[in-house]
Amino acid sequence: MKILLVEDDQALAEGLARSMRDAGVLVETAGNGQRADFLVTTEFYDAVILDLGLPDGNGTQWLSRWREQGIELPVLILTARERWSDKAAGFSAGADDYVTKPFETAEILFRLRALVRRSHGHAHPVISVGEVSLDTHSGQVTRAGMPISLTAQELRLLSRLIQAAPRIVSRTELSEHVYDRDREPDSNVIDVQMSRLRRKLGSGSIETIRGQGYRMTRDVDA
Ligand code: CA
Predict the structure, then answer these.
(1) What percent of the chain lies above the pLDDT cut of 90?
(2) CA of 138 to the centre of ligand 1 (A)
């Protein structure tokens, strides 16, 4: 999961970003609406956390603009304001959910995972393809009911593939959603991590579609 955090309170942003990174989430930050606007229109994220009180305008104004441009990614509003009218304005502008400050990071993570899962069309928190299952909340992966231990990077790869299944996920999509912008992998890195993932999940679990990308399959083999 790759998240854009838009928040001008630097201490709050750093604290939240750190906790989310500890939970295996890729986080990029923007301290104002302009920067956020640039990033959402040029980069790829799974969701945005958006503070309403930004130095260069209300978050809802930026959000309306993104929705008008057809940017559909899930947006969770973060606000200190208790007023009902602020939440209403947020939803009217196209927000999907909100959290009021002060908040528990765990709550934000639960809500983000649900939003991202929903955006891929999944209602149940556990997504299964063939023998492989991913609990999108706990991050636990099983193969035929047996727990499998994955690195944070492998878990992000699997998460993208399993949420997209049976769609083919291109290498470009993987490098945009699964890796940090500052550390975009050469294609070799994806190959190496993909083969490690196959070793752990069963060689038939992930299919390579030549020239197109990768796809989770129901095929079971040793
Ligand atoms: Ca603020």
Answers:
(1) 78
(2) 30
Angle (CA) 4 10 11, round 5°: 115
d(CA 211, ligand 1 centre) in Å: 45
* Confidence at 83, pLDDT banded by 50, 70, 90: confident
How far lies 18's CA from each of 14, 27, 95, 119, 222, in Å?
6, 9, 24, 25, 39
Q: How far is the CA of 158 from the centre of ligand 1 (A)?
A: 34
Amino acid at residue number 126 = V
Chain region(s) in the chain for CATH 3.40.50.2300: 2-119
Give me the CATH code for the 126-216 domain, please.
1.10.10.10
53 CA distance to ligand 1 middle (Å): 4
Instruction: Place 84 in a pLDDT band, splitting at 50, 70 and 90.
Output: confident
Nearest to 147 by CA among 139, 159, 157, 156: 139
Query: 51 C-alpha vs ligand 1 centroid, how far in Å?
Result: 6
User: In which residue ranges of the chain is CATH 1.10.10.10 found?
Assistant: 126-216
Q: What is the pLDDT of residues 87-127, one digit of tens each?
A: 889 999 999 999 998 899 999 999 999 999 999 999 999 99
Asked if CATH classification 3.40.630.30 holds for the domain at 2-119, the reply, yes or no, is: no
